[in-house]
Amino acid sequence: MATTTAPAPGATAAGVRNRLRDPAFWADWAALVGLVVLVIVFQSANSTFLTAGNVEAMLISAAILILLTIGQTFVIATGGIDLSVSSMMTFAAVVFGYSFAHGWGLVVSMLLAVVAGTVLGVVNGVLIARGKITDFVVTLGMLSAASGAGLILADGKPTTVINSFLLKFSTRGIGIFGYTFILAVIVAALAHFVLFHTRFGTHTLAAGGSPEAATATGISTARIKIAVYTISGVLCGVAAILLVARVGASEPAANTQYLLNSVAAVVLGGVSLMGGKATIIGPVVGALLLTALVNGLTLLGVSQFYQPLAVGIVVVLAALLTRFQK
């Protein structure tokens, strides 16, 4: 009967030290390590940071970014990028407000918001996959087109959306976990299952890792491209509903900060910008990190002018770490 020998304590310690010295380790765990460090720093500087009320507010605030980040993750997993997420969300929100203001009802307005985001996502995917236009150009054009369409539909004015269900949905929850955050977590769980436990997820990663090899094995990279941009559009529509519920109005002015933060969260989460390597948990943690960063700086009284600078620095540092990913 064969026997096994336990590793020597010194060998185990040496392995841990070598792992900690490996830049690839920090590249893969950058979001989680960064979040822990931020929590320690901000809690030390301001004891209200980890109070139940503030944590609940951060999680509710992070829900929209988490949804956009998940959609961005699917796109980047194929080696692409979606620069139009903030504008698609804004347009979907305007459609929501327009429908609600014209008496079409809450359910219909919500469905139309999702449909609006879906249609724009499909247009992106078709132009990129079938039109053979680079994703950067297509989504940059959609960023402008969707913003313009939203301004035209809303006549440049915000539309107030007052509804008791939306108010409860955006402000209540279970303990510190708001309903919007719970929804975002459910979507993240579904996305994780799709990406790692379905044929579509396998094909998505394969198309991003090596499009030529994927095509040679019978995978339709064009269909995968259309599908991932459609997913991004759908989640922009869902995020639009959460945005309207949180603000109480549909605002036609696009918030481009969501675009930067969605890409930043994906990079922080260890997803390769070259495609073929992705995770869902990492980008979600990255979205929480960016939300905690802005919240902590606000509690410390740091001017809003410096907050984008802080986010930009974090993104660049995370991008540098991705050079060491294996």
Automatic annotation (TrEMBL):
Q: How does it sit in the membrane?
A: Multi-pass membrane protein
The listed locations are: Cell membrane
**UniProt-listed CDD domains:** TM_PBP1_transp_AraH_like
Report which superkingdom the organism of origin falls in: Bacteria
Q: Transmembrane helix: present as a keyword of the record? A: yes
Coiled-coil residue spans: none
Which UniProt key words apply to this protein? Answer: Cell membrane, Membrane, Transmembrane, Transmembrane helix
A Pfam family found in this protein is BPD_transp_2
Please state the protein's primary subcellular location.
membrane
For this protein, the parts annotated as crossing the membrane are 25-45, 57-76, 107-129, 136-154, 174-196, 226-245, 257-273, 280-299, 305-324
InterPro entries named among the record's database cross-references: ABC_transp_permease (IPR001851)
- Protein name from the UniProt record: ABC transporter permease
Q: Tell me the organism.
A: Spongisporangium articulatum
Per the UniProt record, the lineage of the source organism begins with:
Bacteria, Bacillati, Actinomycetota, Actinomycetes, Kineosporiales
